[in-house]
Amino acid sequence: MLHKLKNWLNPIQLPQSDDFIRRLPSLVIGEGMLHRGNITLLEYAIQHLPEQGSVVEIGSYGGLSTNLITHLLQKYHKNHLLFNCDAWIYEGYKDHLGESGPGIDGRDDVSRTDYALYLKNAFVQATRFLHPQRLPHSFHLRSEVFFQKWQQNSPETDLFGRTVTLGGPIALAYIDGDHSYEGAMSDFEHTAQYLVKNGFILLDDSADHLPFGSAAMMREIKQDRRFRVINKNPNYLIQRVG
Ligand SMILES: C[S@@+](CC[C@H](N)C(=O)[O-])C[C@H]1O[C@@H](n2cnc3c(N)ncnc32)[C@H](O)[C@@H]1O
Known about the structure:
36% of the residues lie in helices and 22% in strands. The protein is an alpha/beta fold. It has a single domain, classed as Vaccinia Virus protein VP39 (Rossmann fold).
């Protein structure tokens, strides 16, 4: 009841009309993972992107948010590079209860390894199909390792076979990987090290009512004077001010 009242008081701001964005969720895997409110927040951040820095996405899954971000970068004529990573691991609903078997969701005939490979292949296929001229620099890495390489300015070969040097300033990060408190905090702190002034972070599953570690973390970040809240929809978009 309280939840319904909160939704009524703070209705979600939906994305502006854009036929490609309307089409995307039925074209690329991941509709269940991408809150529609995040689309509006990403669109705002990309329209107001600082000139310097790259865009970083943690957690790419089947490519829905990656192709959305790439589309928005093109739409607003932003030449920023997009770097992203995913560990492509299966995350079971009951893993945290220690109930993990070899298969997915009660289906022992569908292995976790095959599931992860299916999603990674889907990511590559969708991205090649939709943005062949503007492929992101994508890496099959856990975010901790991705940020280590970012710190080392390490040259790496991405999933599309191009060698690129990681590192440097970040203008926008979409953090949507490990939603535990420790995982989200690690991604947030790593990003904060490189985030330019007026740069943005959108933290998925940070909405006030959610039971995830990422939401608990956001309650702490709201006290962090380096950042201001731009909007919550219901997840938080924050901007570096100091
Ligand atoms: C919610 S999904 C991402 C959805 C995607 N951003 C979208 O909207 O289309 C979370 C992803 O994070 C990945 N992940 C979980 N922990 C990770 C970690 N430590 N490093 C990198 N990726 C991680 C999972 O493999 C999963 O694909």
